[in-house]
Design a protein that fits this description.
282 residues, Nitrilase/N-carbamoyl-D-aminoacid amidohydrolase, seven-stranded mixed beta sheet
Length: 282
């Protein structure tokens, strides 16, 4: 059973080394979510592709679910209700009506009653040739449908007002400015950053998004080597609005957990009012 909620709401970024077997990944996610709840978290976020890291990008098509039904979504709903925990489900492969060759990379939010209360479909797709000796090449658009670029998902949670994004979105600051303009006090950025790009840019970009928008950042990630040899960076973190790293799991499975002091965030915004001093706004 979860411990009593702390005076300041605690948030958790869960780090996983997801495999090509959905049942294995759900079991791991359930264990780590229970660990977060036992540590007093009111909201926990899972990484991108937490339910499946296949050998090929197209592997996700075989486990795609219609919105509101399927083993992945039932697991999330049941676990949220059992643990009395809000869960941000990194990404879930949601079927695209009439298009069997693509899925939505949907970040779904479940409240403590197990209800799905928000959805964000990844807007920016990772169509990139990574500059390294291994010649990594990714074309997410071959199997993922891009979300609506005018869709900004912000929702009230027990930890504060939360703005949703996914992985490659991190490199597009205009999205996060739009979320902040809609009242976001926390950003969730679930990811499966490559080892190469993560080592170079992950921490810098997370801290930049926190600092420039004066928000908390919850950044759960994939880590280690996956089916097909893909390597991800890990370093799941919770970042404070001054850019301070409040918690981080470098490698391996685990839970990065920290308190989200939203009243202190608003005191910072009042004394250091860069958001209200913008001359070019969204």
């Amino acid at each position: 059973m979860a411990e009593p909620v702390h005076p300041l709401p605690r948030v958790a970024a869960i780090q996983m080394n997801s495999t090509a077997v959905v049942a294995e990944n759900l079991a791991t996610a359930g264990r780590l979510l229970a660990e977060a709840a036992a540590a007093g978290a009111v909201l926990a976020a899972l990484p991108e592709n937490f339910a499946l890291m296949g050998a090929r990008e197209t592997d996700k098509l075989a486990v795609a679910e219609p919105l509101g039904d399927g083993p992945i979504q039932r697991f999330l709903s049941d676990t949220a209700k059992k643990l009395r925990l809000w869960i941000v489900a990194g990404t879930v492969p949601i079927a695209v009506d009439g298009d069997p060759k693509h899925v939505w990379a949907a970040s779904l939010v479940f409240d403590a009653d197990g209800r799905q209360v928000a959805r964000y479909d990844k807007i920016h797709l990772f169509d990139v040739d990574v500059p390294n000796a291994q010649g990594e090449r990714y074309r997410e658009s071959n199997s993922i449908a891009a979300g609506d670029p005018a869709s900004f998902t912000v929702i009230d949670t027990p930890a504060g007002r939360l703005g949703l994004s996914v992985c490659y979105d991190l490199r597009f600051p205009e999205l996060f400015r739009a979320l902040a303009a809609r009242g976001a006090e926390l950003f969730c950025i679930p990811a499966a950053f490559t080892a190469k790009t993560g080592a170079a840019h992950w921490d810098i970009l997370l801290r930049a998004r926190a600092i420039e928008n004066q928000v908390y950042v919850i950044a759960p990630g994939e880590t280690g080597t996956h089916a097909g040899g893909r390597q991800t960076w890990g370093h799941s973190s919770v970042i404070g609005p001054w850019g301070e790293v409040l918690a981080c799991i470098d490698s391996g499975e685990g839970v990065a957990i920290a308190d989200a002091d939203v009243p202190a965030l608003h005191r910072l915004r009042a004394s250091f009012p860069n958001l209200s001093q913008r001359r070019i706004g969204v």
